[in-house]
């Protein structure tokens, strides 16, 4: 699975980095945000804006998201398309 690690990136660069990544790689892929609440919110906003879905990689680690295209298989509710939208709040 391809990964985009945003550690060390400035908040001003986040949307551009995410957009470039999501349109040059096939989902699913991982976006690592780290512990920054602002960074996580910016990534989720960008992902949602372009009709992708994201869910935290783990129940405890919320510093990394697994991104899927809209209507993709959901690892949480195990359906396709996803009905739970978990992580896209």
Compute the number of strand runs: 4
* Proportion in β-strands: 15-25%
Helix content: 10-25%
Series of secondary-structure elements, N-terminal to C-terminal: EHEHEE
Counting H and I runs of at least 4 residues, what is the number of helices? 2
Question: What summary fits the major beta sheet?
Answer: 4 strands, mixed
How far is it from the N-terminal to the C-terminal residue, by CA?
24 Å
Shape: globular
Protein structure class: alpha+beta
Task: Record the SSE blueprint.
Layout: E1 3-5, H1 14-22, E2 29-32, H2 37-49, E3 52-56, E4 64-69
Parallel strand pairs: 1-2
Antiparallel strand pairs: 2-4, 3-4
Helix pairs in contact: 1-2
Tell me what the structure shows.
With 89 residues, this protein is an alpha+beta fold. It is 25% helix and 20% strand. It has two helices and four strands, in the order E-H-E-H-E-E. It has helices spanning 14-22, 37-49, and strands at 3-5, 29-32, 52-56, 64-69. Strands 1-2-4-3 form a four-stranded mixed β-sheet, covered by helices on one side. The chain is globular, with a radius of gyration of 12 Å. The chain starts with a strand and ends in a 20-residue tail after the last strand.
